[in-house]
Amino acid sequence: MDIAREYDPEFSVPLLSDALRRRLVTKAALRTALPPAHRGCRTAALAISLADANHESAAESITAVKFYRFDITGMIPQVETCDAAGNLLGRNDFRHEKYGLIVECHGVGKYFMGRNSPDEASKKNHERHMKLLNAGFRIVNLVWADLFRPHEFIKIKAELDTLAKNELNQHGK
User: Fold this and answer.
1) Could you read off the pLDDT of 80-90 as tens digits, one per residue?
2) Are 128 and 89 in contact (CB under 8 A)?
3) For a Cys-Cys bond, which of 50, 60, 109, 125 suits 55, CB 3.0-4.6 Å?
């Protein structure tokens, strides 16, 4: 809790999400441990609200914080995505609850830490990516450095605003 009270959520949310994912603590226990009316309690409460056991990496946790900071709502972590026929296309780091927008956080770990060779892992990732694109999904790919560049999140927000506007125009006709 001290880290959540003393530091920005970009630092504390990955730690809290990891503890939640490993079932070392619950959100209820975190909320209970938060002393009311102490310095940093609002920052810690925000970090607790943004932490999620479904975040599988620090990058995903930081992405969730950035979604909050850029007023990007409706992004659901770790979603299985299917095509119109119901065929599984893949599991995505984030997908919008309403629009076909997917955000993927890419690190090199999946290419070197799995059972497959880096070439095989890269090929599988590319195939999944192409299936998603061909099914009509819009995909934003982020690497670690992008998490600290406002431009990427401004683009995601603009894309969602455009999708919402297009939907409104279609329903208005």
Assistant:
1) 999 889 999 98
2) yes
3) 60
